[in-house]
Amino acid sequence: MVADFDTIDININVGPQHPSTHGVFRMVLTVDGELVRDLDAVVGYLHRGAEKLLENQDYRQGIGIQDRTEYLAQFPAEQSYVMAAEKLGGFVVPERAEYVRVICVELNRIASHFMFMGAYGTDVGVFGTSFIYGFRERERVYRFFEELTGERMMYSYFRVGGLAWEVMDGFEEKARALLQELKRGINDINGLLTRNEIFIARTRHVGEISAERAIEYGLSGPVLRSTGVRWDVRKDEPYSVYDRFDFDVPVGEFGDCYDRYMVRLEEMRQAVRIVEQALDQMPKSGPIMPEKMPRMLRLPAGEVYVPVESARGEYGVYLVSRGGNHPWRCRVKSPCFTNLQALREMTVGEYVADSVVILGSIDLVLSEVDR
Amino acid sequence: MLGVLRSMLTTLSTTMRRPVTRQYPESHRPIPERERAFPLLLWDHGVDEPYCTGCQACERACPCKCMTVTMKDNPRQAEGTSKRRKIVDTFWIDYGRCMRCNICVEVCNFDAIAMNNTWTGIELSAYDRHDLVMDLDELLALSRAGGIVPWAEYVGEENQKLPPRAVQAARTLAGRGPA
Amino acid sequence: MAEESAQSSPSAEVDDGVPELFQRSFPDVTFQAGRNAAGQAILSVDRKDAARVLRGCKEDPSLGFDYLRNLCGVDLEAQGIEVVYHLLNMRTKQNVAIKTVAPADDCWVEAITPFWPGANWHERETREMFGVEFVGHPDPRNLLLDEDMTIHPLLKAHPLADIELFQGVDVF
Q: What are phi and psi of A344, to 5 degrees?
């Protein structure tokens, strides 16, 4: 009798203004009942021409734009930009500045993952509890960075060659106190979500992708590591002082949403380990910029591509310089842009309710998709 | 079932903790010394005029093009009461466009511009975007009233002999003084 | 400036054998080899060979460059548009940048999306920003810009417009 009915697939527009799309993102789902047959992702609602702007700004002004390109984990974005300029110019960053950079990047990674935990719980249905837990911990990191740089979110703290200014008094004590509070926050989130049967039922074996397809799509970050591929730019192509730290790279098994959550949870714990080691190893005094840095930076002609492990994956800056104090071309390769291409493959065949869970597990930041 | 109970145990344990909420308009939290809100200009109380000479270094360095500056000949220099040959004539900063990157403070040759680190720099709401364009009098107001202390006074005589990068850091951050 | 505070220039001493590897796998293709500031190999090919070389990178086990890191365009003004592909071999951890130039008057390259799904959105974005046509791309719509956009914004022929300044102007 069911075969006598004529059915059509309907298009559902999960529009740009939607609380679950983590920003202005639009996807058009073609559904047959509740089953998703096709997905068309439409992006570009937050496009601000960042790459064009970067061609008209010099190497200090462009750091503010990098902050705003990735608005949840700003320090890795700043770091890849200044590292690209340093490679072109041949500048050597002093050791103390490298350690402070690593501490800032890892604390930012923890804060960004807290945001993910918060928003992901909301997507799955916890609706508010996990969100508030995540933001309570993010506030602590904001306060710490406010004492260090003066800004809660858009720091503009890294400069080509090192840091903009010296750290504040009591940097080490405040960082250690912050780590204790963050460890308690991680345990809270862990207790709330990890063993919760409802959470597992909603995320286990949902949105699976295999390791071969993940490499074909060029995925990176926790989404790639959840499929079983152990690739982390900090371990495999070490930059800055990451080769001096002892930390693990968590890897998942099935490539589903639950594995991505577990990878990020474990990454937070590893980031805490890295910050503790960095605070132990950091030189107590020293320069934060090389001697004789010019006031107006002019880089020689050349090009370089510098990848950095951001909270969402591999954030890369491809910098082409033709001399002068502006880049000729600055391409920002953002991890969410590449990871979103795989959304279609992950969602087709799942239910409509799961499409929101899969989208949340990619940890989307629209400003870096659209730039 | 056990997992759900464990989640509930977590939520129960957080109810026992001290709340982190602050009743905002009634109580303000203390903001750190390095707070970096919007830029403003400093007033030289010794000579009774702004430090700013209108050289446009900050206007050229601004990534957002949020400033417009013009200079004029200083009438006080002819009188002999001031050493500045030129003085600022008009100075607009569009707070709606400023991104608080601190570059204008770093390039200023006269220590004339500083980032506001008091609550007045943060509580800035307006009904119209054009009301956020600040002119010279509004930018000098807090410093003239004594709410912001210029760097040199704040760090004292002996610390002005620091090496250049430390000087710049101190000027950028510690030079605003308490509200 | 750079000489006073620099260490030794990195690009001179690194030799990872990547250009020779490519020349052996594609004996009939002419490569122009170079090094970037991080010491990684840059291979420039003619656009008629580019798709074939990239296919070989992915499918040939002796090359194994199967991870596409970046695909973008660079405006070379008079010479045309240069399309750059950054590839990674995860097993040997070698990087290579493959470049091809599309001349200004006849601006096309072959799309690699049919055999490399990870290039889909990168090629769409490069097409709308620079005007390079990717022949064989299954879905050449605009990605980030409006559908009715008529210019290609990242070309140097379209400089950034001036900001409207409100300072000091009576707008009421």
A: -60, -45
Which two three-digit tokens encode residue A254?
């099935």
Query: In chain C, where are the structural domains located?
Result: 12-106
A331/C75 CB distance under 8 A: no
Domain that holds residue A259: 2-370
> Which CA distances in Å does A52 have to A19, A223, A307, A316, A329?
30, 29, 20, 17, 8
What is the C-alpha to C-alpha distance for residues A177 and A175, in angstroms, rounded to an integer? Answer: 5
List CB contacts of A290: < 8 A, sequence separation 6 or more: A91, A92, A93, A94, A161, A162, C5
pLDDT digits (tens, 9 = 90+) for B88-101: 888 888 888 889 88
The amino acid at residue A178 is L
pLDDT, one tens digit per residue, over A240-285 is 889 999 999 999 988 899 999 999 999 999 999 999 999 999 988 8
Nearest to B92 among C167, C171, C172 (CB): C167
- Please tell me which residue of chain B has the smallest CA distance to A164: B169
pTM: 0.89
Q: What percent of chain C has pLDDT over 70?
A: 85
Helices A74-89, A62-69: crossing angle, 10 deg rounding: 140
Give yes or no for B90 touching C (CB within 8 A). yes
Q: For chain A, how many structural domains are there in total?
A: 1
- Those chains having 3 or more beta-carbon pairs within 8 angstroms of chain A are B, C
Q: Which domains does chain B have, with CATH numbers?
A: 32-176 (3.30.70.3270)
Query: The domain C12-106 belongs to what CATH superfamily?
Result: NADH:ubiquinone oxidoreductase Nqo5 subunit (3.30.460.80)
pLDDT in tens, chain B (179 residues): 888 888 888 888 888 888 888 888 888 888 887 788 888 888 887 788 888 888 888 888 888 888 888 888 888 877 878 888 888 888 888 888 889 888 888 888 887 888 887 888 888 888 988 888 888 888 888 888 877 766 656 555 555 554 444 444 445 554 343 33
Characterize the bridge pairing of strands A26-32 and A10-14: antiparallel
Return the residue in C121, C123, C149 with the most chain A beta carbons within 10 A, the one to mutate for interface testing: C121
